[in-house]
Amino acid sequence: MARPRSLVERVVWAVTATVALLVGLQSVLAYVAMHSQEDELSETMLQREVQQIVAHTLQPGLTPTGTLIDSSRVSAWLTRDGAGAEAIPPAMRALAPGLYHFDPEGKSLHVAVTDTDDGRLTVVLDATTSESRVRRYGYTLLALWFACVGATVVIARGVAAIAVGPIVAATRTIARSAPDQSLAVDGRSDEAGVLIETFNRFRDRVDEMVEREREFAANLDHEIRTPLTTIRTDAELVALEGDVAPAQRRRLARIVDSVDEIIATTESTLSYSAGRFAGAETIDLRDFTGAACAALADRAQAAGLRVLVEIGAGETVAVDRQALLTIVRNLVRNAIEHAAPATLRVRGDRHGLVFEDDGPGIASERLARLFERAGGERRVDSGTSGVVRVRGLGLAIARRLADLQGWGLTVRSPVAEGRGTAFTLEFGAGPAPPV
User: Fold this and answer.
1) 356 with 345: CB under 8 angstroms?
2) pLDDT band (50, 70, 90) for residue 26
3) Could you say which architecture CATH assigns to the domain 277-435?
4) Residue 7 — very low, low, confident or very high, per pLDDT cuts 50/70/90?
5) Angle at 224 between CA 222 and CA 229, to 5 degrees
6) How far out from the chain centre does Cα 333 lie?
7) What residue spans in the chain does CATH classification 3.30.565.10 cover?
8) Dihedral angle at the C-alpha atoms of 209, 215, 217, 220, nearest 10 degrees?
9) Cβ atoms < 10 Å from Cβ of 108
10) Half-sphere exposure of 62 (CA within 13 A, CB side)
11) Which residue in 59, 188, 273, 275 is a FRET match for 98, CA 20 to 30 A apart?
């Protein structure tokens, strides 16, 4: 099996082949043009010799037949009614009037046959010397072609080392960080193969991680349903069987609603991770938003956040209820954690919602990365259990859900006089196709 070629070798071969083809083509064209010019020049000289012989040598009725001229360069014969033909070389005796080219025994002979008033004239021009010069010219072009190809190989290696060097270095770095086991690239020259193998390893690892996450989410959903059902059932039984004060009854109802929310959130999360979306449901925006904010009323009051829902009656919209609920609650929680003490006003209609507070606002250096999972401030609590809980991901989750639904979620801060933050949620045409 042939050894895979490195990127440097491929670049060298590509550049060398291109130069060799172009220079070779030019050399062939130059040789053909030179050879054609030599033939045309020889034929022109031959025709001139014929004209001179006819004008100055032949004397009608007096010039004897046979050999007229016999030199190293030009030979001429005259035949009249077959007489004198024995002096002409056999290959040329039966030629009709015209121009011919012979190559006997390594020579190059141009022949002209013409009828005159005194008989048939045959003139031969020996162009062997000119042909030799043309061949030497061809050999010179061939030597120059080999020199150009050799120089191109040397130059291409240097250029390839400069151009491909960073890619080779990056390949070695990537190969050393390949999952499972770093790839040994010192003895390998096929950087493309190394990159493909590394990519396949990363892809397999990502597929494994996604599968494990989905399996974990499915297991988590299965495992938490039993205790959540128990909590919900006990809360309902306490509310039905016991002598419970109205305030406690409201808290029990809130427990039941929270359990239902956890179950619905888990189901929607599993659906989103698998690329499945719940169908659109027509909701009353004022009632829906008011209920979502009311669920966080105790936390908001404790933090000093006053929540005002300023949505007109009768405003309805067809959306994914659970997705919108998650986004609304995350935006309200964000205001509780970062804007309070302040007032949060929620306005909107069927086109979207606006969450505007009069809190301290957000610094410009944080604003651009606010929706990134690692963009905003994150508070990490380890506690005594050793379990790490990362807080502050609500905005990233809200943006991700909005993107999945085909909605737009933007922020601007400050709103007025250097204070305040406004989050705008615009309802789009529908869920984006799963990637």
Assistant:
1) yes
2) very high
3) 2-Layer Sandwich (3.30)
4) confident
5) 105
6) 41
7) 277-435
8) -130
9) 20
10) 5
11) 59
Residue 20 and residue 119: Cα distance in Å, rounded?
55
At residue 24, φ and ψ (nearest 5 deg) are -60, -40
Give residue 296's pLDDT band: very low, low, confident or very high (50, 70, 90). confident
What are the strands, taking DSSP E only, across 40-105?
66-70, 74-79, 98-102
- CATH 1.10.287 domain extents, the chain: 190-276
Residue 228 CA to residue 263 CA, distance in Å, equals 8
pLDDT at 28 over 90: yes
Which residues, including other chains, have CB under 8 Å from residue 403's CB and lie 6 or more apart?
409, 432
User: 410: which strand partners?
Assistant: 424
DSSP string covering 374-420, please? TTS--EEE-TTT---EEE--HHHHHHHHHHHHT-EEEEE---BTTB-
277, 268 in Cβ contact below 8 A? no
Give the model confidence (pLDDT) of 83-133 as tens digits. 888 999 988 888 999 999 998 888 899 999 999 888 899 999 999 998 899
Q: How wide is the angle at C-alpha 189 spanned by C-alphas 184 and 192, nearest 5°?
A: 90
The Cα–Cα gap between 237 and 22 comes to: 91
| DSSP type of residue 3 | P
pTM for the predicted model, two decimal places: 0.48
**Fold exhibited by the domain 190-276:** Helix Hairpins (1.10.287)
What percent of the chain clears pLDDT 70, i.e. is strictly above it?
83
CB 139 within 8 A of CB 27: no
**Sign of the dihedral through C-alpha 251, 253, 256, 257:** negative
Listed in sequence order, the residues at least 6 apart from 4 whose beta carbon sits closer than 8 Å to its beta carbon are 189, 190, 192, 193
3-class secondary-structure state, position 412? strand
Q: What does the alpha-carbon distance between residue 290 and residue 294 come to, in Å, rounded to a whole number? A: 6
At 270-290, the pLDDT tens digits run: 666 665 666 788 999 999 999
C-alpha span between 231 and 227 (Å, rounded): 6
Instruction: Write out the two tokens for 2.
Output: 């042939």
Nearest to 269 by CA among 304, 320, 315: 320
Tokens coding 154: 């040397």
Residue 42 identity: S
- The closest alpha carbon to 257, from 329, 205, 186, belongs to 329
Nearest Cα neighbor of 12 from 143, 189, 141, 184 is 189
